[in-house]
Amino acid sequence: MSPLSVRLGSAATVLGLIVAGLGVGPSPASGHERDRGYSALIRRASYGVPHITARDFASLGFGIGYVQAEDNICVIAEKVVTANAERSRWFGAAGPGDANVRSDLFFRKAIDDGTVERLLDGRRDGVRSPSDDVRDQIRGFVAGYNHHLRRTGVPNLSDPACRGKPWVRPLTEMDIWRTSWASMVRAGSRALLDGIVAAAPPAGAGPAGAGDAAGAAAVVAARDGAGAGIGSNAYGLGARATTGGGMVLANPHFPWQGAERFYRMHLKVPGRYDVEGAALIGDPIVEIGHNRTLAWSHTVSTARRFVWHRLSLVPGDPTSYYVDGRPEKMRARTVTVQAGGTVAVSRTLYDTRFGPVVVVPGTFDWTPTTAYAITDVNAGNNRAFDGWLRMGQAKDVRQLKAVLDRYQFLPWVNVIAADSRGEAMYGDHSVVPRVTHALAAACIPASFQPLYAASGQAVLDGSRSDCALGADPDAAVPGILGPANLPVRFRDDYVTNSNDSHWLASPAAPLEGFPRILGNERTERSLRTRLGLDQIQQRLAGTDDLPGRGFTTGRLWHTVFGNRVYGAELVRDDLVALCRAQPTATASNGATVELAAACTALARWDLRVDLDSRGAHVFTEFALAGGIRFADTFDVADPVHTPRRLDTADPRVRTALADAVQRLAGIRLDAKLGDIHTDSRGERRIPIHGGRGEAGVFNVITNPLVPGVGYPKVVHGTSYVMAVELGPHGPAGRQILTYSQSTDPNSPWYADQTRLYSRKGWDTIKYTEAQIAADPNLRTYRVSQQRG
């Protein structure tokens, strides 16, 4: 590990911060909270954002559950259906290969195994099992949700998506713990669930049939551990990059529909917790946000969340394997789910001492001699709600680091933060399997070393007990890398991440020497990462189109939504010269395509993805077709600006442009982006700016092409955006939830922030009492319930 990796005080000082400054462990009030009723003050500000104040964490949870049910009850109810293995019962199935059936078989096994119940046993210190504060908050959340449902009634729900549906029911605390567990394993066993459900021992001499394991195959093929369909940008700006205090940009790129939408809220228990920000719908705690002196965001990490174990099978018995020369029998469990409520579907799933058996055809087959199992280190992660709660109580980035060290709870994300003292921090402080350099060298067979080097997927020798993950002495739990093995950087200028690895979080001080399972180092960065860094460097130098040098929250907002297309800045001119010189090309299907109109559209394009940008979609399709190919090579001494020159001699460049023109048949090549790039709210189409990360866009919007129509529906991209400055008078800045607060088409908050996003507007940070009181749309009410 680099000696520049971490700058911390003594272990005793860190522990003192946790105990004295953060109040870790059960609070004196927790035992009494169970005997009291619930009462929460709700102040709805502009755009429906709730500011919730309560006397204790149980009542705070009650308020959160109530308002989230008001705004998004159908989303929460469907999350519960999924985690309780009932998707195929309520939403139908076409047989064992159906995605709902596969999901249900995966979650039913976890339920039958009592997985979540075991995670709730143990000392309530927030590490071994959830604390009383968090349990109170979950209990209150369930009571608040149920209070709203009871008052409204399922037949009278406002949202037609679940009005009168039999799958909407009162919640239990176990429902929320199960949905939390489902989120923890998203990048591990849940990502591989197709391969878990498909795993079956071979019947003859060849490998077993794998059924539909396409999802698992995609995980294996991915270059790193970042989950598909999610991503993020984040900046942590220190005093040298601002007017003095720290500043944070949060820019997660998450789905615009479904269970992984964010929800804005401000939560307060006077004297104990006071945090504004956003959480995934159905979660009772702020996950991205700020308090008075500290702000933070998350980006999806490249680290892998699971390891493979190659099993040497006992001859003639493909469900037994050797460990240290002794045979062990796999544990077989037959699970059954109801498809459509009437058809029972059963599957026998197999477990080992390491975890479930998984098949991925062609890479991880189950043959008469070999099988593969995985260890998902997040399958035992019951620490997340406690970790986020204590994050919200930290006063600066050093205390934040102490929280991360103690709880090690972040399931699959980095953290980027800054504080009012002007110090910024980056860390991939997530839950990562303990694959050290030594373990990788000794226990990954030679045939799998290239896979580990290329993608960080470790395949360990399962026949040797000394190849188990082991325990770092400073780790919160066994089997994961401890804080000393994780990359962290403190800076007074800036840190950033855009879903590449830890290496270039600070170009002035790269993080190097860490285990490969965390991500690659000294390698080419994505166009989006490079643009993110270039934007900061230009702003600090004053060479962009904004006044002065350094960041204010206003300048930060304009930087994010400047909508530059970095790939086009590098190669557009050369591409135009190429297509003018050779105005026809052969597409991938062999057809000859005229390029003149595309060439003209690209030449006139403003190199942005603004609503009035003409021709941006031509470059988008060119980039998606693999057309950005460089003639020069990556230079580790200049990683932000290399490579940068289009390889005009590569015939695939012209082929990609021809393919783009073909795909855009029926759509004007010089159309304004806002005319064809939209999202719908009811009958209204709202123009959406932004574009694809593959083209080098920072403000990512993934909006698939509909042939002959355009891009009518956003799938994922910029979601919750926060630009917050931590000054002497408290936090201030801008924020927005791009797809709006509610999924209910009858809600007044169904489309308002989406229209605001379309015109690059914002809502203000509302943290102090003065900021809240100044909101012209403030509406106050109290929700309460006595315990019977």
TrEMBL record:
The keyword Signal applies. It comes from the Bacteria. Pfam families: Penicil_amidase. GO terms for biological process: antibiotic biosynthetic process. The keyword Hydrolase applies. InterPro entries: Ntn_hydrolases_N, Penicillin_amidase_A-knob, Penicillin_amidase_dom1, Penicillin_amidase_N_B-knob, S45. Keywords: Hydrolase, Signal, Zymogen. GO terms for molecular function: hydrolase activity, acting on carbon-nitrogen (but not peptide) bonds, in linear amides. Belongs to the peptidase S45 family. This is Acylase. The lineage of its organism: Bacteria, Bacillati, Actinomycetota, Actinomycetes, Micromonosporales.
